[in-house]
């Protein structure tokens, strides 16, 4: 069954509201790492999922400008969460990986965010949550396919359906 124009607009407006509220919430979110801006957290998550990765690949994965990601990486290196080294396959490029402190920080950040969302979703039951996550993945996959059809690079993110995000039973 096709989605009506009104339904499509309702989904779009609902997502826009959630996006704006998440942006507003990040300004009041607790700082789990001194000196680390929450806008750099996605960089940490991509590096955590990739292991060792080129800065340009992090930027592509996040659909961000390389200069923006490079500044975030520099800040994360200064904070001791990432280490930066020359790419062994191309000495002109840089790769980054998590330090031990970075691994610990990612764990704390994810635990904190999970606890926050557990509170937000306290009235939901397991099947509702599973359905919601499945639908979010489907929407993400549809957006990804649309971007690919337009020729935009869309490498797997550590939180999309092309990346293993659930523990095996």
Structural description of this entry:
- The chain is about 60% helix and about 10% strand.
- With about 170 residues, it is mainly alpha-helical.
- The chain has a domain at about 35-125: Winged helix-like DNA-binding domain superfamily/Winged helix DNA-binding domain (Arc Repressor Mutant, subunit A, Orthogonal Bundle), CATH 1.10.10.10.
- Mean pLDDT is about 85; it is low at about 165-169.
Share of residues in strands: 5-15%
- At CATH's second level, what is the architecture of the domain at 34-123? Orthogonal Bundle
Average pLDDT over all residues: 86
- Say what the CATH topology of the domain at 34-123 is: Arc Repressor Mutant, subunit A
What's the oligomerization state? Answer: single chain
C-alpha Rg (nearest Å): 18 Å
DSSP strand tally: 3
CATH class of the domain at 34-123: Mainly Alpha
Helix and strand succession? HHEHHEEHH
Distance between the termini: 33 Å
Q: Which strands sit side by side, in order, in the main sheet? A: 1-3-2
InterPro entries: HTH_MarR-typ (IPR000835), MarR/SlyA-like (IPR039422), Tscrpt_reg_MarR-type_CS (IPR023187), WH-like_DNA-bd_sf (IPR036388), WH_DNA-bd_sf (IPR036390)
Pfam families: MarR_2
Biased composition (Basic and acidic residues): 160-169
Keywords: DNA-binding, Transcription, Transcription regulation
